[in-house]
Amino acid sequence: MFFGISGTEVIVILLVGLFVTNPVKLPDYARRFGKFVSEMRRRWQAVKSSVDQETRGVTDALNLTEEDKNR
Are 30 and 14 in contact (CB under 8 A)? Predict the structure, then answer.
């Protein structure tokens, strides 16, 4: 699923959360957690894109022609 957590483990975590917290607030906590995960995914994609963009110039500079490879 995400973070290496299976569906069963998520259900167990939610059930424990239901008993530990106020059941009325649990949907709000789940919504906040969903927003957090979404934001982290968006930020990770931005970092990944930035790294790819920066390394693209380096890899282009290092690409050798066929003549250079045969030396």
Answer: yes
Quote the domain boundaries for residue 53: 7-63
Summarised one tens digit per residue, pLDDT across range 5-60 is: 787 888 888 788 777 877 788 788 889 988 998 999 999 999 999 988 887 776 66
User: 26 and 14 in contact (C-beta within 8 Å)?
Assistant: yes
The sign one gets for the Cα dihedral 60, 61, 63, 64 is: positive
Residue 69 forms part of a structural domain = no
Under DSSP, is residue 2 helix (H, G, I), strand (E, B) or coil?
strand
Query: Does 71 fall in a domain?
Result: no
What is the rounded CA–CA span in Å between residue 11 and residue 17?
A: 10
Is the pTM above the cut of 0.70?
A: no
Element (H, E) at 16: helix 7-20
